[in-house]
Amino acid sequence: MKRILIANRGEIARRVIHTAHAMGIETVAVYSDPDANALHVREATQAFALGGTTSAESYLRVDRLIEAARATDADAIHPGYGFLSEDAGFAQAVQDAGLCWIGPPPAAIRALGSKSAAKALAAAQGVPCLPGYAGEDQSEARFVEEAGRIGYPLMVKAVAGGGGRGMRLVQEAAQLPAALASARSEAVAGFGNGELLIERAVLHPRHVEVQVFVDTHGNAIHLGERDCSVQRRHQKIIEEAPSPAVNAALRQRMGQCAVSLAQGAGYVGAGTVEFLLEGDSFYLMEMNTRLQVEHPVTEALTGLDLVEWQIRVARGEPLPLAQECVRLEGHSIEVRLCSEDENFTPHTGRVQHFRAPAASAFVAVARPGEGHASLRFDHSIEAGLEVTPHYDALLGKLIVHAETREQAIDAMVQALGQLELLGLPTNRALLAACLEHPQFRAGDALISFLAGEAEAVREKLLKKELSAHSQYALVAILAKSSESRGLPCSFSRPVRLRHRESASAMAVRALGAGHWHVQRLAGGKDGAAADDASVLQLERLGEHAVRCVSAGVSQRVALVPVTSQRWHLQAGGVDWWLDDVSLRAAARAGSDAGAAELRAPFNGRVVHVMAEVGQTLPARGTALVIESMKLEHSLSSPAEAIVAEVLVSVGQQVTPGQVLVRFAKSAAAVEAAPGDRQAAPKSQQPITAG
User: Fold this and answer.
1) Taking the model in full, what pTM does it have?
2) How far is CA 357 from CA 29, 299, 373, 554, in A?
3) Looking at the predicted structure, is the pLDDT value of residue 347 above 50?
């Protein structure tokens, strides 16, 4: 094996490139048109243009990938994760082309890639499974009948699914038809297969998975478990190992079940067996026939390079360790940095400023010293990166390894606070807030954690944002003047700055040499001065950062202009968006907002339109559904309203801020709140729905 083509993009392509080069193996990157200048393209030995914009036009083109391998004389293909990594047809095509496939045999992918087939195989191997239905009859009537037998609540899942796509929780019979339709639509769009299954729902479980490895010499081992319970939209955002709920005896039981399933399927290579864990009872969810996004936490605990193991096993080498030689040391946590806001709404845009904490990359972090933690950052981020709607929202992964779980949590919170990424919303602050939540710190976070605590987490973030806005908002306005050292001035100028729905008024006067006198103004119409006057000192720290000193306290503030009157700022681990409304008239409390508009919160494609002209939609009633970053998102009426206009149709591409539906206030809404202004949403971006 002398040259590996990596049939993927972004941080996973960079991950494989790093290990391959360390082993003396050349690499070939492939890329779509939007990825032509991406980091993985520049770091590989060679690169091949697939063409196209969307995944279907590029990274999912089996014919083009095989053509790329032949054109570059690659002798092996590594699929990464996602895209075609669990496609048996692609694995077979690679082998038929005379290339080495770095993954499990096509037959094993077929046996385990279908959730229904995997559960049948698992039952034969004695692996615990939940009662359900996964038959050939996919009619709604049959699902309704089987649901009555299984009982509610239950889960609807895409048979060929993964990553939380095509999955719906159904609490009662009335919800089942809509859940089936929505899950099938998402499954067809994401996997090209609309087949579904249903199974009994476990309402308060953990998501615990086991990493397995099998070679061609009959050796099979597991490398411990990972707890992936902190999720949104059934997708993981925080993973850790070991699980705080798994002891040595339970680990042995789960590990043996995972190994038995892999061996029963004739598996070879790296795989992950996912379980629902409730108390000491566990049930199979599925087996992922690929390397997982969260594999670095296992690498941290074991000190192993799992990509190297994949390559060696694909070359026919035996596993380098027996089960009794596997050692799990310390505690590791991974967080997924995504381009989404605190409401889990994905966002596209341009990274204008990026500053990473000191960390290694793409290698197992070193053993932590006493009281110290090691940090790893796998990503494909750089200033100028355009985040498009064509791929998922994952930007990178921070991984920390420490002696204890408490040390790992503290180190990760600190690392997230040091990370600066400005220009588009990310979940950086939300991740830190989740880690600091008492329920997570106690090791008690279940899959339902964010469903129950997300609003409290958002409220905590909002308080921090308003505090930072109060202290550092002026930095955005004064930084440019401070750069020229600001000549003294005897006159003050009024400034009004807004974050979300909170606006602050100040009178600012230049003292010279980067110093400013700031007088906060009371909210009254007369603009009377408040009591808190202060002197602010600003010092530029490069193009996108300022040191702000007030009352003896020094704080680094990173900032970028988004428009001429709007900024994105970060200070002390807090992100917020600021608007200069100094020249705008203050909103009157009694004004009438008139008809409301439903605007697109991000780039996407309209897949369903429910709203009809003249229809009265209830508050939060779904008006339409758009697909973006591989997920479907329901957009709702902000309040009870009458549909006045529907401006889009199914299949239409939409852009952020585009008006989709216009509403007129219903009679009930007018009577309930005469003259009240409609509350704006909590998203960082000015959108009407999330």
Assistant:
1) 0.84
2) 27, 20, 13, 20
3) yes
